[in-house]
Amino acid sequence: MSTLIIITGASKGIGRSIATAFAKDTRIAKLKLCLIARNLEGLKQTQQMVNSLSSSQRKIQTSIHSIDLSEIDTLHKSIEKLFKEEIQQDKFERTMLINNAGSLGYVGPSSDMPTPMEMTQAVNFNVTSAIWISSYFVKFFAHQHKTKCNVVNISSLCAITPFKTMAMYCSGKAARDMWHKTLAAEEPSLRVLNYAPGAIETDMTDILANAKELDPELSAFYKRSKAKHTYIQPATTAKKLVNLIMEDKYASGDHVDFWDE
Ligand SMILES: NC(=O)c1ccc[n+]([C@@H]2O[C@H](COP(=O)([O-])OP(=O)(O)OC[C@H]3O[C@@H](n4cnc5c(N)ncnc54)[C@H](OP(=O)(O)O)[C@@H]3O)[C@@H](O)[C@H]2O)c1
């Protein structure tokens, strides 16, 4: 029996590194990675990186799916189809969801928010879609197919600390954290983790560093981190996350940061 790991936002950045960190970790003997994002080229590159870590002794299977997770109207249909395909192809004793996809949304003063429509789009993707995927994952794999389930919400320090000019991002991450904490309280048989990866060098932090309305102190931090190479690398935080999951020592629903002991 295999372990199925579904990773959203796997076309680049932290999601890609989480996929390769699982591929490198031999504690999972039979592994299938299901990789989701919009950019098919990026997904193919992640798939190639995973395939290069596969061997005749430990063959890693992959599937890639180009899905826009902000498309709320079609989300149920596309995710249900994907989960059904996965379960038809193999039997899984354990399934994991790494709920990683995310975006910054509006960056700027809280007294000058964008239009309600722009706010709705960001909330649809970063909150509604992410929460719905975790919910449906539990219903489908834990309840209907009786597999052991891990749910990982990729969180942020922003979920628990206010950062000036990042209220949309902070409140979206806080909502995701609390939803997953509540899920953990309701479902003691699940393993639920809110993981804050630290400040990582990715496209997201590049965009942030150049965001005109970002708080000047934050802007200086991101620019300095890039110039002085003090960012945590995606592979480093991904390895820490895989170890956390495999060692299984956290309390379900906890918010664990890269920098925590
Ligand atoms: N970088 C950091 O310092 C940092 C710190 C704390 C938390 N995080 C969190 O870590 C996660 C990953 O961030 P990252 O830094 O790796 O960002 P990134 O490089 O911008 O990657 C974001 C990922 O999300 C996917 N994505 C974006 N919009 C999507 C959509 N509509 N549908 C499906 N997939 C979509 C992107 O793929 P496509 O564009 O191909 O769709 C990409 O794979 C996010 O939740 C972020 O909030 C990051």
CATH superfamily membership, which one?
A: NAD(P)-binding Rossmann-like Domain
| Straight-line N-to-C gap | 33 Å
How many domains would you count in the coordinates? 1
Could you say which small molecules are bound to this protein?
NADP nicotinamide-adenine-dinucleotide phosphate
Rg over C-alpha atoms, rounded to the nearest angstrom: 18 Å
Mean pLDDT: 97
Question: How are the SSEs placed, and which strands pair?
Answer:
Elements: E1 2-8, H1 13-24, E2 31-37, H2 40-51, E3 60-66, H3 72-89, E4 92-99, H4 116-144, E5 148-154, H5 167-186, E6 191-196, H6 203-209, H7 216-227, H8 234-247, E7 255-257
Parallel strand pairs: 1-2, 1-4, 2-3, 4-5, 5-6, 6-7
The structure holds NADP nicotinamide-adenine-dinucleotide phosphate (NAP).
NADP nicotinamide-adenine-dinucleotide phosphate binds next to helix 1 and helix 6.
Describe, in short, the structure shown.
The chain has helices spanning 13-24, 40-51, 72-89, 116-144, 167-186, 203-209, 216-227, 234-247, and strands spanning 2-8, 31-37, 60-66, 92-99, 148-154, 191-196, 255-257.
Describe the structure.
The chain is of the alpha/beta class and 261 residues long. The chain contains 8 helices and 7 strands. It has a 7-stranded parallel beta sheet, sandwiched between helices. Strand 2, helix 2 and strand 3 form a beta-alpha-beta unit. Helix 1 runs parallel beside helix 2, helix 4 packs parallel to helix 5 and helix 6 crosses helix 7. It starts with a strand and ends with a strand. The mean pLDDT is 97. The chain binds NADP nicotinamide-adenine-dinucleotide phosphate (NAP). NADP nicotinamide-adenine-dinucleotide phosphate binds next to helix 1 and helix 6. The site of NADP nicotinamide-adenine-dinucleotide phosphate (NAP) has 28 residues, from helix 1 and helix 6. InterPro entries: Biopterin_syn/organic_redct, NAD(P)-bd_dom_sf, SDR_fam, Sepiapterin_red. Homodimer. GO terms for molecular function: sepiapterin reductase (NADP+) activity. It is an enzyme of class 1 (oxidoreductase).
